[in-house]
Amino acid sequence: MYNNKTSSFFVFLGFLVAMLCLSFGVSFFKNYYDYYKDKEEISKKTNIVNITFNQNITLENLSKKMTKVEGSIKFTSGDFMYSIDNRRIYVDGIYSTGQLSKDDYPLKEGRYLSKNETASTKKVAMIGFLLKDNCKKIDNKYFIEVEGEKYEVVGFIGRKTMSYWNNNIIVPINALPKKYSLQQAATIPFVFFNNNNNVYINNLKFDLKDILKDINIDNVSNEVTVTKIIDIEKSFYTSIGILIIIAIINILNFSNYWVESLKKSMAVQRVVGASSFDILIFIFKQVFIIALIALGCTFILHIWLESILSKVFMVQMQINLINLVIAFIFSILVCTLNSLFLLKRVLKFDKEIKNYI
Description:
- The radius of gyration is 30 Å and the shape is elongated.
- Helices cover 49% and strands 23% of the residues.
- The protein is an alpha+beta fold.
- The chain has nine helices and twelve strands.
- Helix 7 runs antiparallel to helix 8 (321-342).
- It has helices at 5-44, 59-66, 115-118, 178-181, 198-211, 230-271, 276-312, 321-342, 344-348; strands spanning 46-58, 74-77, 80-84, 87-96, 107-110, 124-128, 136-138, 141-146, 149-157, 168-172, 184-193, 217-223.
- It folds into two domains: 5-36 and 229-356, no CATH class; 46-193, no CATH class.
- A hairpin with a 2-residue loop joins strand 7 (136-138) and strand 8 (141-146).
């Protein structure tokens, strides 16, 4: 007597849309938030220093002199763009007088380049975690090819989902592919790790001018690039709020239709002796079963959408089971409470039951 396939299907649609919003939607926006958060973190602790000469010079010649700067120093070359399977990859050369750590790169697997390796011409690399599939495994070691030159991968940086580092390849600055190191330019950028310490940068300028004076240096300038996260956070939480509103509206609209189709049946059951508790248990069971089916369909759609984003847009996502469970519980609570609110006259006032027959 209670079964109504059409109205139940509408409730199922409401749950499906709500769960997709609260699981896939939240994960999607969280991915982009994490990516821009990465950019903010790296911009806070680095300065870009541009060295300008009155004639062209190769990075290979310049980097050999740069490693002669005294004291503690850590820097990378500017990005060199490379393509792997239609993905834009950024190749950087690094030099450090100290050991690299989690303050420099988020290590996911393996180890960091040692300080001795960063000063060498050894073909070793740290690469973005999502580039692991592009490596060749030989004798339990990973290797990746860049511009025809093979590098042994000693560490993977970034994470399984979107990360600023996922498309990066970091190698010793003196081991950059010849295609990059032999390029000639009048201005060559370097990125220095210094927590944006202006005193450090000003001292560095004098050191560089002294070391590079034999190759006619014209200017050493620096720029600070700090990505503000405030607006990104605001956009993220605004997006989450909109998703929650969409989820609630969908559940309320479709559950209203479902409850309206049940009112007459509920009133009849009250007349024949069903208690309010019986009605409550029935509503909860129906909502739970429909929500459970919607949960399974949401899980399948989640996987399918992740695959589409990965293959078509190169956006990596991962199912967050916690988000999915929260969406499931949230949907059940909203629908159950709304149903009880709409049926309150049936549940509380026996004398008004006749109005529904």
